[in-house]
Amino acid sequence: MKLFSYLSRHRIAVLLIFALLVGQAICDLALPRFTSDLVDVGIVQSGVEHAAPEALTADSRELADVLLSPDERALLDRAYRADGQGVYRLTDEGRAERAALDDALGPVLMLAHAPAAQRQRVDQVVDQVRAGSLDADRARLMVRQDLGASGADPSIERAAVLSAAGAELQAAGVSLDDTRMAYLLRTGGVMMGFVLASGALSVLVGLVAARTGARIGHDLRQQLFERVTAFSEADVQSFSVASLITRGTNDIQQIQNMTVMLLRMVLYAPILAVGGMIMVARTDLSLSWIIGLAIACVLAVGVVLMALVVPRFKLMQKLIDRVNLVAREMITGLPVVRAFGRQGHEQARFDEASAALMRTQLFTSRALAFMMPTMMLVMSGATVLIMAFGSEAVDAGSIQPGSLIAFISYAMVIVMSFLMLGMLGFVLPRSQVAGTRIDEVLSHAVSVADAPDALAGAFCSQEGARIEFRNVSFTYPDSDRPALRDASFVAEPGSTTAIIGSTGSGKSTVISLIERFYDVSEGAVLVDGVDVRRVRLSELRAQLGYVPQRAYLFSGTMASNIAGQVSGGDGPAPVPGPGPDPDLDADSGGDGPGPAPDAAADLPRVREAARIAQAHDFIQAREGGYASEVAQGGSNVSGGQRQRIAIARALARDARALLFDDSFSALDYRTDAALRRALADRRAGVTLLIVAQRVATVLNADRIVVLDEGRVVGVGTHAQLMEDCQAYREIALSQLSADEMRGGRHE
Length: 747
Ligand SMILES: Nc1ncnc2c1ncn2[C@@H]1O[C@H](COP(=O)(O)OP(=O)(O)OP(=O)(O)O)[C@@H](O)[C@H]1O
Prior knowledge:
Number of strands: 15
Helix content: 55-70%
Bound molecules: adenosine-5'-triphosphate
Strand content: 5-15%
CATH topology of the largest domain: ABC transporter transmembrane region fold
Radius of gyration: 44 Å
CATH architecture of the largest domain: Up-down Bundle
Mean pLDDT: 83
CATH class of the largest domain: Mainly Alpha
Main location: membrane
GO molecular function: ABC-type oligopeptide transporter activity; ATP binding; ATP hydrolysis activity
Strand order of the largest sheet: 9-12-13-6-14-15
Shape: rod-shaped
Membrane topology: Multi-pass membrane protein
Keywords: ATP-binding, Membrane, Nucleotide-binding, Transmembrane, Transmembrane helix
Low-confidence stretches: 567-597, 743-747
InterPro entries: AAA+_ATPase, ABC1_TM_dom, ABC1_TM_sf, ABC_transporter-like_ATP-bd, ABC_transporter-like_CS, P-loop_NTPase, Type_1_exporter
Number of helices: 29
Distance between the termini: 66 Å
CATH superfamily of the largest domain: ABC transporter type 1, transmembrane domain
C-alpha cells in the first residue's frame, strides 16, 4: 500500500490527527445523548433531573421520616431546612450529597405521589409502621413492589422517580415551566459547547491533514524531479515526456488528495464506529440487528460499485497521459499544423483522446453518483425499521422517546462510518494506481549513471582533451539498426575535427556518445585515454562544452542563459537600472527571474563568450542588453540568434573540448566564418569537434571524419579526402565551386 508507506514518514502528524479525531468522536458521540436528555428530561420531565427535589412538602417530609432508616433521616435533616412556610428547601450540604439523597428520597416521593388507588395501600403501610407493627425497610420494599416500578428499564424507573419529584416540586409551589426552561438552556448550552469543540477539532484535523498531504506531494515532486533529471535520453523515451508530466502533476495530486481524505474521513470511521457501538450497547441492544442489516447492505453496494469502478481508474490515468501527449504534440507543432492545414486532423485526434477520457470519467462518476442515493435509501430504511420496532418498545414503556432518538442517531453514525470505510475501497485502488506510476519512475534504474567504482579526478590536464572512438558500435534502445558500426577515429588535443556525412549517417550519435547521453553497445569512447563509462558523469561533462543541434534556451535573461543558470521564472526580466554600461545592468537582477547573482558575477566571461559566438552585437542591440528577457524555449529570439546564445553558453564554461552538433547550419556564411575565426583566435588549444552539413564549415579542419550509414568511410584533411574518399568527394562536389575546392582555405 503506497499511501501507507508515504504516511509512515509522517507518523507524528498521523498520531496527532488520531488523537484529535478521538476527541472529535467523543464530542460527536455525546450529542445524541444530549438530544435524548433534552427530550426525556427537559421536555418530558419538565427539566427535573433529580429524585431529591429543590423543595419538599411537609407531608412528604413526614412520610420520609416514617419510611427512612435513621442514617437516611440524618441525611435528610442535613439536606433540607424548613423555610417557615411549610416547605423544606434543599441546602448546599444536601446538593453535595445528592446521589445518596436521590436514592433515599426517590422511593418515598413515588409513594407520596402514587395514584389514588395505590395511595390507600401506602397509607395502610405507613400506619402499620407508625404503629410499630411493620419494619420501615420492609415497608419501603413492599410499597415499591406494589407500584411495579422495579425491574423495568432503568431509564423508565428513573422517569417514574423524576415525575414524582416534579409533582413534589409543584406541590411545594415551584413552577415547572421555570425548571424546564432552566434545564433546556443549561443542557442546550453544554451541548453547543460540545458542538463547538467538535468543530474546532475538525478544523485542526483538516489543517494537519492538509499540511501532511501537501508535504507528501512536495516530497514526491522533489524526488520525481531529481530522478527524472538523472534520466538518460533512453530513460525519458521509455516513459514518454507526456507520461512523466502526468505522473509528476496529476498522479501526485491524486496521492495528495487521497492522503487528506484518508486522514480526515477514513481514519475517523473506525473511531466513530467503535464509539457508536459502545453507545448503542449502553442504550438498548434489542434493535442492533437493524444496524447489522444496514451495514451488510452498505458493504454489498460498496463491493458491487468497486468491482465496476476500480478497473476504470487505472485506465483513466493512461487516458490522461494520452490527452497530454496529443495536446503537447499539437501545441508544440502548432505552426506546422497551421501551415499544412492539419487542424481538422489534429482536432479529430484530440477529440478521440478526450472523448475516451470523458467516457471513462462519466462511467465512474455515474457509478459513484448512484452510490449516495443508495446509501441514503439504506439509512432511511434503517431509520424506519428502528422507528417501527422502537415505537413498540416506547409503547410498552421499556424505552423512552429520547433514548429511541439517540439510538437512531448512533445507528446512523455506525452505518455512516462503515460507508466511510467503504470509501477506502475506492480511495486505495485509485491512489495505488497513482502511487505505482510514481514508483515506476522513482525505482527506474537509470541506464546511464556513475559506476560504483567511478574514477574521481580522472582529468587533471588543462590542455585540450583527446577524444578517441575505438571500434564503437551503437544501436538506439528502440531500434534494431545500428546507428554507428565499428567506428574508430581520434580527435587530438587542441585540433579541430569535423564530422561530415549525409543525414542519418550517425553524426549526432557521435556527440551523444561523447557526452554519454547513451552508452556504447560495443567498443569504447575514451577521453584522455579513459573510458567515459569509468569516470564520473559530472566530471566528464565538465570537460565538455556542448552545443546541441536544436538550441534550447530557458526562461530568464541573456546573461543567465549564457552563464548556464536556469532562473526558473517566466516573468519579465528586471528593468535595468541607470548605469553607464547597459551590459552591467544585469547586476541589478538580484531577486527576480533575471540573471542569478553568479551570472552577474560572471558577466565578463559571459560577454567574452558572446563576442566569440557573434552574439554580443545583437544582445547589446536589445533593450536591456544582457538583462533582456528570454522567453521559455527562446521563442522570442530568432533561430540563428538562439543558436549563437547556445554556442556562447558552451564557450562560457572552461571546457577542454567543444562539441558542436551541426550548430553552424542556422548561421549565415559570414557569421559562420567569423565565429570559426574567433574560435581559432580565442580558444586555441581547445579540442573542437564540429558536426557539419556544409563542407565550407569543415574545409580547414585538421581532420575530417566522413560517416556513411554509421561507418567511418574516410578520415583525413580536405585535400586528402578529395583524393581518396568517394563519399566526401560527392558531398564536396555538390556544395563547392571548383575554385573553392582548389583553394582549400575558405572563409
Ligand atoms: N533517439 C533515437 N532513437 C532511435 N533511433 C535514432 C534516435 N536518434 C537517431 N536515431 C537513428 O540513428 C541514426 C543516426 O542518427 P543521427 O541523429 O546520429 O544522424 P545524423 O547524421 O546526425 O543526422 P542529421 O544530419 O540529419 O542530424 C538515424 O538512422 C536515426 O534514425
